[in-house]
Amino acid sequence: MSSDNLYNSKRAALDEDWLKYNKITDILTVAQDIKPRFPKSFVYKVIPIRDNESQDISKYFEETFMFIQNVLDQEDRRILVHCEMGMSRSPTVVIAYIMRSQKKSLKEAVIFVKERKSFVRPNSGFYRKLKEFESELSLKNDSDSESELLNQLGKNILID
Question: In this structure, which CATH number among 3.90.190.10, 1.50.10.10, 3.80.10.10, 3.60.20.10 belongs to the domain 2-153?
Answer without folding.
Answer: 3.90.190.10
